[in-house]
Write a structure and sequence with these properties.
Distance between the termini: 35 Å
Mean pLDDT: 82
Strand order of the largest sheet: 3-4-5
Bound molecules: zinc ion
Strand content: 15-25%
Shape: globular
Oligomer: single chain
Structural class: alpha+beta
Helix content: 25-40%
Largest sheet: 3 strands, antiparallel
Radius of gyration: 14 Å
Length: 95
Amino acid sequence: MMLGKEHHHRKEFKCPWCKHVMDWSIGAGNDTQTKPQAGDVTICIECAKPGIWLGSAELRRPTYEEAQTLLQREDIIFLMLAIKTMHEIEKSKCK
Ligand SMILES: [Zn+2]
């Protein structure tokens, strides 16, 4: 793995809510590692909140109206619940 000097192929991005650093090559449900397009939605694997892609490797928080639309999508709700549930299970395992 190469570190640094890869500004054009940066795969890391930060959650706009909790600042958790993620990699877009994971969790997309495929291994093509396609760069997300502006307007695409990503669910944070840490806090389970949705972020909207800007043109670059950056996420912003959805507006109130966007959030209302997102929360009508079953795939989004499913992901949010799945992430929350897995975190709870992991937490209870550590005790
Ligand atoms: Zn987050």
